[in-house]
Amino acid sequence: MSVREIVTAGHPVLRERAREISPDELQSSEIQALIDDLIDTMRFAGGAGLAANQIAEPVRVAVVEVTPEHPRYPYKPPIPLTVIVNATIEPIGSDTIEINEGCLSVPGLRGVLARWAAVRVRYLDRRGEAQVGVWRGLSAGTFQHEVDHLDGILFLDRVSDPGTFMTWESFDRFHRDSFVARVAELPR
User: Fold this and answer.
1) In a domain, 173, yes or no
2) What's the pLDDT at 55?
3) Is 16 a catalytic residue?
4) Which of 45, 52, 162, 187 registers the highest number of CB atoms within 10 A of its CB?
5) Domain CATH number, residue 137
6) Where are the alpha helices (DSSP H) in 17-106?
């Protein structure tokens, strides 16, 4: 287990669709070690999730975790540590929500984008067992963000108004309070 370098926007691996892995490959010591590295790296960097291609490994593996004392996202609902392998997402309904989103691979920058308000995620867990999860609100956005990574999509691609791009400092200073008040009303 180790903390790995997170690649940033401009690195070609972030624009590739990551490849599926077989159940046998998932059980390999290499992929199990990769999962441990993803968890360590996500926690060290203060992320709510991390996809394998963000550490230059183009396989369809990502991790998500939000704790109540999360340093960057104390306003997000808790999500227990979840390993998603070969994940697919389907929206539940047609409602969308606007999220002010950032990314460890786009350090220091945030932007406003629309995400599905509720999603169903089908995936394998780290043991290779099929799982289906339903998430709403900001949690739904977190899973969409990570699966986007696995599809070679950055949040930058989904921002429809470039006028909403801002630094983390500006978000904290001018926008955080109103954003937190608005998302507090979202279903969890």
Assistant:
1) no
2) 98
3) no
4) 52
5) 3.90.45.10
6) 23-26, 29-45
